[in-house]
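Quick one, tokens below. Sequence please?
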């Protein structure tokens, strides 16, 4: 029997300042890559998480939270004379808007020291966030991670998660994203992000242009589509009472990745299995929407299965 391999998640961990009722704000640990790592661990996947925090109150708070989570291998470093990134999460016209406080941010202080110490052969997937793309030095270092992953037979997962306000122009965005879009095996983006990067194209066109194995396009409350093997697998969202949508996309993607990892141990995967992947991933996203904040929607695979079996839902599959 082959040894169970882990997922290496590299990207930002930060403080989410989330607007609640009466314009009150609450803070919690967040950042899309951290959310993915935390959710994967809840789903029984072995995860190591690498990130940087500042030498400040929020950095200490994050370290306590990450060090106390025994489900995740903690590779978070504190950087002297740097600040921890803060994300303002504000509701406007029933939509969540983000603004980042990133002055002198530790989040971008990637170096090759950790990569040189890691045995990438211990992992099956390298998952990357995208906020590092605002910094040219970070881009070059993260390219080394991708090169190492490819050399060691890992699949590369990339979440587009575009935040336009951290870039100078659309031209800069497209240039910074190019390498990572071209080298991702699993690529996740929203419908709006797809239109931004690939205006006027059909999703299947990307398989001719990029090296992706699977493309995921999330569509908010309109569902999500998975593209692979020249087919589209679409599912509507589960009906839940929404508390907020913070982290829903990260949760959806965690559910997807957990099932992709599971499929590596199967001798045969058919259309029905891909349908079940979408069902499971969508259930993960829905559970996160049913709770406040990005985390805590579920604590195990059993929680998700129980929800799928119990909840009244409107599900449509298209192949």
């Amino acid at each position: 029997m082959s040894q169970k391999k882990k997922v290496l998640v590299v990207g930002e961990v930060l403080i989410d300042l989330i607007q609640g009722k009466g314009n009150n704000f609450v803070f919690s640990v967040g950042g899309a890559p951290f959310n993915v790592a935390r959710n994967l661990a809840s789903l029984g996947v072995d995860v190591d998480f690498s990130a940087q925090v500042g030498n400040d109150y929020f950095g200490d708070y994050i370290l306590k939270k990450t060090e106390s989570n025994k489900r995740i291998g903690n590779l978070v470093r504190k950087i002297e004379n740097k600040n921890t990134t803060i994300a303002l999460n504000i509701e406007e016209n029933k939509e969540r808007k983000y603004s980042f406080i990133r002055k002198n941010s530790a989040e971008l202080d990637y170096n090759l020291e950790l990569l040189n110490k890691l045995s990438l052969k211990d992992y099956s997937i390298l998952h990357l966030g995208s906020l590092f793309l605002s910094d040219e030095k970070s881009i070059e270092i993260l390219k080394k991670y991708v090169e190492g992953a490819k050399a060691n037979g890992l699949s590369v997962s990339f979440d587009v998660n575009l935040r336009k306000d951290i870039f100078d122009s659309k031209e800069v965005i497209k240039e910074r994203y190019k390498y990572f879009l071209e080298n991702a095996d699993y690529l996740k983006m929203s419908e709006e992000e797809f239109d931004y990067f690939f205006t006027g194209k059909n999703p299947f066109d990307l398989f001719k242009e990029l090296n992706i194995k699977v493309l995921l396009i999330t569509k908010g409350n309109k569902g999500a589509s998975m593209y692979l093997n020249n087919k589209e697998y679409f599912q509507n969202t589960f009906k839940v009472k929404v508390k907020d949508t913070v982290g829903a996309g990260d949760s959806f993607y965690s559910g997807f990745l957990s099932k992709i990892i599971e499929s590596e141990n199967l001798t045969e995967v058919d259309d029905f299995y891909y349908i079940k992947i979408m069902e499971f991933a969508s259930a993960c996203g829905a559970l996160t929407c049913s709770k406040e904040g990005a985390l805590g929607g579920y604590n195990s695979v059993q929680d998700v299965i129980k929800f799928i079996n119990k909840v009244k839902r409107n599900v449509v599959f298209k192949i």
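The chain is about 35% helix and 25% strand. The two ends are 34 Å apart (CA to CA).
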